[in-house]
Amino acid sequence: MDKYKETLVNIESGEFSINELVSILILVVSKIDIDTVSGMATTLGKTRRGIEKSKRFMKIFIGKQIFAINGLRESSLPF
What we know:
This protein has 79 residues and is of the alpha+beta class.
């Protein structure tokens, strides 16, 4: 199994502690361009509605907040 799959399986099966998961999350967030929809709109000089409707940004929910990921199109992930 390659390292990517192994890491995902380990996360899903509970192999990591909460501290390790938070460390992974902090590292991942530092490597991708992710922000709230409003924050992304402000940064890029676009409207909130434009970011919400655009298929050029992947949108995900974290808690009760919607985040936009710049550089990853809608439906380009396998899940």
